[in-house]
Amino acid sequence: MSVRLPYGISYFEKLITENYYYVDRTAYIEKLEQASEPYIFFLRPRRFGKSLFVSTLWYYYGLEFADKFSTLFGKYYIGQHPTPKANSYAILHFEFSRIDTSTAESTIEGFLRNVHQGVYRFLETYTTLSIGEKEQILQQRSPDSMLVKLFEKYDDKNIYLLIDEYDHFANEILAFNFEHFSEFVSRNGFVRKFYEVIKEAAGRGIVDRLFATGVTPITLDSLTSGFNIASNLSTHHYFHEMMGFTEKEVETLLKQVAPKLSSEERQRVLENLKKWYNGYLFSRKAKTRLYNPNMVLYFLKEYVYENEYPDKLIDVNIASDYGEIRNLFRLGTIEHKHKILEELIETGVIEGILTEQFSFEKEFSKDDFISLLFYLGLVTLFEAGISQLKFSFPNYVIKTLYLEFFIVSLKEQHQLDFKTVEIRKKLELMAQKNEVAPFIRLIEQALHNLSNRDFVSFDEKYIKALFIGFASLSNLYFLKSEPEVEQKYPDIMFLYRPPFFPNYQFLFELKYLKKKQRSQLEQTRKDAREQVKVYLSFEEVKQLHNLKSWVIVFVGEKAEVVEEV
């Protein structure tokens, strides 16, 4: 490996001094200073570079790092164009992701402990207070009183407040215990009081600037109602590329980490990276779609060792992060959620209006839920309509995660009885021996458990959703749902995904008839076979090695036709 990849590294000094690869984002330090808003919230999905950017701000503005300025920033934009505020602030830093939210008491204690850590670090770095004076501050038993005491003793009016993951603990509470959430952010709640103290200090000029990160604004209004002078710049096009990788940056990075790749192989890798990890658009005015940097670094970290693709397209740590945020799906009505989940799988696109401030004093609407998916990174902007926005999956990896959410949601709602390990066994049997029937029986069992009411509006798209949803639980194939082939669309294709090359690839044509339409079965079967023959005549399909094609016709919950073409 010719360069060191900074996968999982969020400390700026370590990244620079130990010669890890760094995509320069320091120009945004200047842009943030030039903005008229001194108190800023900036939201991005999990693992999108937020903590690294906060760390970069800390080293740039911290008084204690002045003698390291040239070493850390010299070869980057801001080092060559420093602002007057460089290394001029006392940094007060809080990070709220490591809090036990299992009970109200543990949440309060965890929040207080994190505040204590930030205040302790501040006192040790920037003050010459006596041990007794420091203890008087640190022994306070509430976060707000600790800040009050700190600001009484330190009023030099040059604090830059950095808050990382402001909403992490609150999102967990919101998903499981709305009563506790309401209590914490109420007028007398400890979180509200905490931000009120910050606002008061900002008014006196003690806190000169603030930069805070998080994932969603779903708690922004409630958590910071005591600090209502901040601006949320998350969807501002001017800051769209402040976090994340552009396509050009990914191409440059690949050349650095794998310089011996042939141009053909490099292009192949770039096409896959674009398909798997690109696609994020956070502003309707932005033109450049972004890659999730953590996912790209994970892939390259695995790839450069032996020039082989990783078995899994997403790191288990990232996948678990997204698994946790699924808990926020508890918000809102079941009807809203399932209609949206199904529509996204059926069409890949959904329309809505982006909610910028959530209010829990009104019903959690369809637009609220779509917006939640947007901030979590599960959908992104597709295009802007006249009055509404269109949202879609940003990339293939997120779509597969979403499919898993869909299947788990369906399993919980309808008490479906299946084990993931059994699904994978059936998929491997199909992949290696072309035995499709066991996997089809799995679909039949799922359909059988659905209520009769669900079949009122049931159609072929629902079958496809189940089909690719179950298939997504295995990582054997790249799944394409209605891919475009010469302006015509096979329903589903299971295609090779390096490093896996099982014995067979598949093309499926699915049809669905209601039980009262059984008389149309034979004609439907013939029509489906003819469609498959047309697809098989396409040059693009002819080039697929070891392709098996199948026609499957469901009548109600049973597959009446399962035949190879």
Can you characterise this structure?
This protein is an alpha/beta fold and 565 residues long. The protein folds into three domains: 24-240, Rossmann fold; 245-414, no CATH class; 415-565, no CATH class. It is 47% helix and 13% strand. The protein has helices at residues 12-17, 27-34, 50-61, 69-73, 77-80, 104-126, 131-138, 143-153, 168-176, 178-185, 190-203, 220-223, 247-257, 263-277, 293-306, 316-325, 334-347, 366-376, 396-414, 420-433, 437-449, 460-471, 521-536, 539-542, and strands at residues 39-43, 90-95, 159-164, 207-214, 231-232, 349-352, 380-384, 389-392, 477-481, 492-496, 505-513, 547-555, 558-564. The strands form three sheets. Strands 2-3-4-1-5 form a five-stranded parallel beta sheet, with helices on both faces. A five-stranded mixed beta sheet has the order 9-10-11-12-13, sandwiched between helices. Helix 6 (104-126) packs parallel to helix 8 (143-153). The longest helix has 23 residues, at 104-126. It is globular. It starts with 11 loop residues before the first helix and ends with a strand. 39% of the residues are buried.
